[in-house]
Amino acid sequence: MTGFQNIHLETKNHIAYITIDRPKVLNALNMLTMDELGQAFASVKDDAEVRVVILTGGGEKAFVAGADIGELSQHSPVSAKAYTHKGQAIIDSIENLGKPTIACLNGFALGGGLEFALSTSYRVMSSGTRIGLPETKLGIFPGFGGTVRLSRLAGADNAIEWIASGEQYGADVALKTGVVDAVVAPDKVREGALNLLGQAMAGQRDWIIEGAGPGHAKSCARPCDPTAHIWPRAKPRPAAIPRSRPRSAWADNPATPFRTRRVPNQSSPRCRVDRRRDCCPGRSRSTIATDLTTAGRQHKPLRIR
Question: Which of 71, 198, 229, 242 shows the smallest number of beta carbons within 10 Å?
Fold first, then answer.
C-alpha cells in the first residue's frame, strides 16, 4: 500500500507486514508516524485477505526508540494531551484488532516503542538488543498504557521495578519475566516470528480459533489452513524472577503500601504526633487531635515522604 511517508505496508501470503521506517532517528514516533500507523492498522483490520499482522522497525538498530524528542520538547500541555490520547487510541486498536499480531523487536524498543509491542499478541526479540520504559528519567511516565500491559505480562512487582528505575533490560531478563515470547539471533527475527506463527497454527501454542466459542481451545493437529481466523488465548501471568537483593515488603504483600504510612490511629512504636506515648489503634484521629489541642498542641497533617 502506498501513500505513507514514515511506514511501509505490504501483504504477502495473507500476512501484513507493517514497518516503521525512520532509521535515521531510530524510528522515533512523531505525530505523522502515529497517524500513518493508525491508518495502516485500520486498513488491515478491514482487509479480508489479511489474517496476521507483523509489526517491525526499519534498519538494524531499533524497533522504535520511543517518542521523537525534538517534537516532544515543542509540545504544549494541550498538544501533549492530544499526542498521548492518539497513541492510546492506536495501541487500543492494535490490541483489539481481532487478528493475531506479532512484534519483531529487531532493535531498541524503548518507551512508546515497547508500549506498542506490549499491545501485540506475541513479541519476538533479537538477542542483541535492549528494551525498557525510560520515561521516568525524563520526568514523565509511560502514557500509552504500558503501566497496565506490562503488569499483566510480567506481574506488578517486575513492572514497578521496570517503570520506576527507567532502566533498559536485555533479552534474557525480558524472556524470564514474560515480556517477550521468544529470543532469536539478530538476523533471524522475522523468521522467528513466522516460526512462532507456525507453532500456533500447529497447535503447539494455545490459540483460539474463531467459531470454537468462548473459553474453548481447539488444537490444530490436522493440516492447518494458514488463512484460518486465529488469535491467542490469554496466557497465565508468570511469576516474578528470583532476585539477588531482598524483595520489598510490597512484593510479598501487594496490599502493603510502598512505604508504611504511620498515622495516629495506626499501631506503631511511637506516635508521630506525640512521641511521648504509644499510638492507640482504638482511638480515632479526631480524638487524638482534640487531646493535643487541649494540651496546647496543634495537630498538623502528616507528610508522606
Answer: 242
**pLDDT of 297 higher than 70:** no
Strands 230-232 and 207-209: antiparallel
Q: Which residue has the higher pLDDT, 197 or 26?
A: 26
Q: Catalogue the active-site residues.
A: 115, 135
Greater confidence (295 vs 188) lies with: 188
Q: For domain 7-197, say whether CATH 3.90.226.10 is its number.
A: yes
d(CA 245, CA 162): 15
Give the span between the Cα atoms of 42 and 36, in whole angstroms.
10
- DSSP β-bridge partners for residue 103: 55, 123
Spatial distance between the Cα atoms of 255 and 168, rounded to a whole number of angstroms: 28
pLDDT tens-place string over residues 90-115: 999 999 998 889 999 999 999 999 99
- CA pair distance 300, 273, nearest whole angstrom: 8
Q: Whole-angstrom distance between the N-terminal and C-terminal Cα of the chain? A: 54
SS3 per-residue string spanning 125-157:
EECCCCEECHHHHHCCCCCCCHHHHHHHHHCHH
**Boundaries of every domain in the chain:** 7-197, 259-305
Cell of 63: 524497533
In the predicted structure, residue 257 carries a pLDDT above the cut 50: no
